[in-house]
Amino acid sequence: MWSRERGRLKPLRCGVEELRCRRREREAALRKARREQQLVSKRLLRDEALEEAEEGCVAVIFGEAEIQQFLRLAQRGTEEKEREGALVSLRRGLQRPETQQTFIRLEGSIRTLVGLLTSNRALLQLEAARCLHELSHSEQSAVVEACLPATSYLLTYLSGHSSDFIELCLYTLGNLIVESEAVRRQLLPQGIVPALAACIQSPHLTVLEALGYALSQLLQAKEAPEKIIPSVLGSTLPQHMLQLLQPGPKLNLGVAVEFAWCLHYIICSQVNNALLITQGALSTLGLLLLDLAGAVQRTEDAGLELFLLQKQPSLLPEGLWLLNNLTANSPSFCTSLLSLDLIEPLLHLLSVSNVVSVLVLTVLCNVAEKGPAYCQRLWPGPLLSSLLDTLAFSDTEVVGQSLELLQLLFLYQPGAAQAFLQQSGLQALQRHEEVAQLQDRVHALQQIALHG
Amino acid sequence: MQLPPALHARLAGAPGSAEPLPVERNPAAGTAPFRFAPRLVRFPREHDFFEDGDVQRHLYLQDVLTQVGGAPERPRVPEFTCQVAGCCQAFGALDDYEHHYHALHGNVCSFCERAFPSGRLLDAHILEWHDSLFQILAERQDMYQCLVEGCTEKFRTSRDRKEHLVMRHLYPVDFRFDKPRKSRGPAMPGAAEQVLAETLGDDGVPSEGDAMEVCSEHVEPPPEPAGERRAYSHRCLTRI
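^ inputs. structure came back:
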């Protein structure tokens, strides 16, 4: 549940260990869901201040009669306060799945709600929108899809001016979008992409973050590469997104996180990355990464979890992947890596994990394969002892990549083979003589080392 | 991995240092049994490589990780009323008032005081309901603009447009911001009763949620439209 009042200290209702355990369970569930291509998460916008003002008691389950009563009062009550109160009660009741089910099965209920959403009473509109939002967050498809009659209005309201209301509409749309392809098949012809493109010009950060969320859900869809991304790329959305990712004093992290994910979904779908590059995506993202890394070194804000390169080993593969693609075919990037003394920091990463080690060694191979001038700069130094260490690994991919690097060093750097022998390199090689994927290369290196 | 300050400066656009080192390859490099060759790597979106990142993303969405944005302040103030003439709504919070203002007083037609959710819908309304030149042109060409943002189609009649909205854009048949005018020709003083009739429904009781149009309690008859004068500038943007 994403709540609005995040800065407040709330008493922990359970211990730290329980929280950790819950997180591990959630993580495991998410991994499983991803493997089954069922990764769906929604956001719930609940105003905790509002709830506390209403003496937040646990929502009661309402039956048909009660729901009908609330709807009737909301529609036709004589007193303004009475009408609002009825809708507020309904909204709180809709926090319960049982009440949601009863509600959607009641004839005319959605129609009435949509009527209130489009009424001339602003507060009723807001409460009706909150009711829809609760429904949109449900795990039951039937409940979520019951909201479909409201979508044309939610989209229409995106071009209004009331930031709170627009924010609510966006989160509701985001939840609906991720529910099913059927929902998206309605939203796309209704013009969701142009509506978002118009809305992204809003100056309100809360609106922008909500928009980023909704858009990220749209871009994450299975059919996005064929059916959604082309029209997004054809709109003004990409240039606005990149603008919102510019580093500097105006950068808002909550907003940036959402649009960074949007860009990721677009880019890895490989629909038209050239277009993004012409719009300056590379420089924007590169500078942003640097800016954030710099910020990380200055502060240890827990909220920057997503960007802590050191603290999150899971980000190293991505960083190294980037380095691989930068250095693979570029002598100038390889030269930069050398002249900026990045080799030693890279070598430090060799003990993190097998995946990371393979990536580090690949980057080093990218540099070494460019010839003697490059290998000369890799030598002497900690490289040899690091390689001898990696030869002690049991992972065949890590060892294999080390062997490739050794071949390049032996080829281009006079004295490398000699030094290798002197530091008991042959013994290090021996343990892999029988390994199927490695033996040919091991023997070849032994020959080169001994006979030149 | 600590980033050396020189790297930051370089990538931020400071003048680069020396030329790239000369490349000089030996054909023996990477030949059997060796196989290394530098290659660009691209991962498709479902690749396992992205699993960790995706999991992080969803933990964040589910609020298991700390949100990075700050929560905006929502001050409550002593009750006050809307200052727009004819409106007496009371509020206890500025945000509620903001929504009320934009919903009811933001895009208001000065002819008939209907409020619209956006400038686009208001403009279409003024053209179609209060502009006599529009009516004349509409007899000869497609003037009814599609209401969906981003769609540039135009239609001969309001009914054709409605059909387009329903068939092409999957809009509801009773979309509330596309009410057709009951009479042909520019809006006449008698329209006031029409407006009332529409809002109240046949039995005089407010129909299922009043359409979000009439902003004040009573409706005044719209002024006679002044001949050929285009009505674009007639908007009720009240300033506090």
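The longest helix of chain B spans residues 94-106. Chain B is about 30% helix and 10% strand.
thumbs up if we can close this ticket
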